[in-house]
């Protein structure tokens, strides 16, 4: 009787877990299918958001719960409430389905089906992570703005991003391992190796997110959880083989099809997920370099040497101390430490730079740079204000961090 009760509870738990996996992952992979996300994914997401608002209003201590997908954070209050919503919703679904388990034999297959679903989700996500590690992507190289920033002013996440972004070799290593883990998960023959590699790769991601306060803790933790669940059916065989050193064999059942149509449908879906989606990620990332990169011949950190007579009327702490041109970005740092950021629209002939995104709300500010020996003249026009400055330029090659390079032989460690 106890064994039967335990078996019943176990089946119910697996059914609940299958529901939770589904509600966390869906509407994946609809955003990779033309029109499917607009027709199905968006309505489903809005329904889930409405349920989440309802649950959030019932919880004590939560006020002004709001969803803003443009924040770039996956650890908002809304996301944490979503964990409760998904848990309750999957519990409700499990109760309803479990009540009719005798009439619906397919329910017994729900958990294995969700493991396959999780396998594709983790695999595609890791491939997407890996692709972003190459070229200008998730971790850009050292920028002039970041190198002029005080070390103590970095956020923990900013520190991690600059650490990873420094080395193209290390980024490539991370990208290759993530793509390998994701790719291996997409095939049943290599799922065990893929799950083992995925656990190692995602564990590192989770530790980085928790150690450096990166707001992707929820997603990365679930990627690790799903990797463990994918490997779980093979734990006994792996333990027997790797720990006890006894003969063991991983089970593998070739897929069988009842009809040629089902076989071709499966192969078509498989090709789409395994080939088309990853290739489209790669192509999209390569094409994105056209707007991620920007050739700016005047790039540099300009330290103001003299402000001439045009800034006499300004208070001393409002005067410019430094101007940094970094790709498409321009930063003006004042003596007081206040900073204003602008976007560079165009770099014209003779050093005329057109700006937008003025923090002061001025129209079409411009900056005219001219080289005068070892110094530079900066003629700025910001609305009604016009002034000319003298500055000294510092380029990326002038920073020791970038000029140090790699050395096979180091007689003494250089750790400063």
TrEMBL record:
The keyword Transmembrane helix applies. The chain crosses the membrane at residues 12-30, 80-100, 120-139, 159-179, 191-212, 224-243, 264-287. The keyword Protein biosynthesis does not apply. Keywords: Membrane, Transmembrane, Transmembrane helix. This is DoxX protein.
């Amino acid at each position: 009787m106890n064994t039967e009760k335990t078996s019943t509870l176990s089946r119910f738990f697996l059914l609940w877990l299958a529901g939770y996996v589904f509600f966390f992952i869906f509407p994946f992979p609809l955003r990779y299918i033309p029109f499917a996300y607009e027709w199905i994914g968006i309505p489903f997401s809005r329904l889930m958001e409405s349920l989440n608002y309802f649950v959030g209003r019932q919880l004590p201590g939560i006020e002004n719960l709001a969803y803003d997908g443009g924040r770039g954070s996956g650890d908002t209050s809304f996301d944490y409430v979503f964990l409760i919503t998904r848990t309750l919703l999957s519990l409700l679904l499990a109760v309803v389905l479990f009540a009719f388990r005798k009439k619906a034999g397919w329910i017994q297959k729900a958990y294995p089906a969700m493991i396959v679903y999780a396998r594709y989700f983790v695999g595609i996500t890791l491939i997407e992570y890996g692709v972003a590690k190459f070229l200008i992507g998730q971790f850009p190289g050292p920028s002039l703005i970041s190198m002029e920033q005080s070390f103590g002013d970095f956020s923990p996440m900013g520190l991690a991003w600059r650490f990873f972004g420094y080395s193209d070799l290390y980024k490539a290593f991370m990208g290759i391992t993530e793509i390998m883990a994701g790719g291996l998960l997409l095939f049943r023959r290599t799922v065990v190796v893929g799950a083992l590699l995925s656990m190692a790769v995602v564990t590192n991601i989770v530790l980085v997110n928790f150690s450096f306060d990166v707001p992707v803790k929820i997603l990365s933790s679930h990627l690790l959880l799903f990797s463990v669940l994918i490997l779980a059916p093979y734990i006994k065989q792996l333990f027997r083989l790797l720990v006890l050193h006894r003969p063991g064999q991983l089970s593998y059942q070739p897929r069988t099809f009842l009809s040629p149509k089902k076989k071709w449908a499966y192969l078509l879906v498989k090709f789409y997920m395994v080939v088309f989606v990853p290739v489209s990620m790669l192509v999209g990332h390569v094409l994105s370099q056209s707007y991620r990169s920007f050739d700016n011949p005047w790039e540099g950190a300009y330290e103001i040497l003299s402000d001439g007579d045009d800034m006499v009327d300004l208070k001393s702490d409002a005067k410019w101390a430094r101007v940094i041109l970094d790709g498409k970005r321009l930063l003006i740092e004042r003596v007081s430490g206040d900073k204003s950021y602008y976007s560079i629209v165009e770099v014209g002939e003779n050093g005329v730079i057109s700006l937008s995104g003025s923090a002061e709300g001025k129209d079409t500010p411009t900056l005219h740079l001219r080289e005068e020996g070892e110094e530079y003249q900066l003629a700025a026009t910001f609305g009604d204000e016009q002034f000319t400055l003298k500055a000294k330029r510092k380029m990326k090659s002038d920073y020791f961090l970038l000029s140090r390079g790699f050395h096979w032989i180091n007689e003494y460690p250089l750790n400063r």
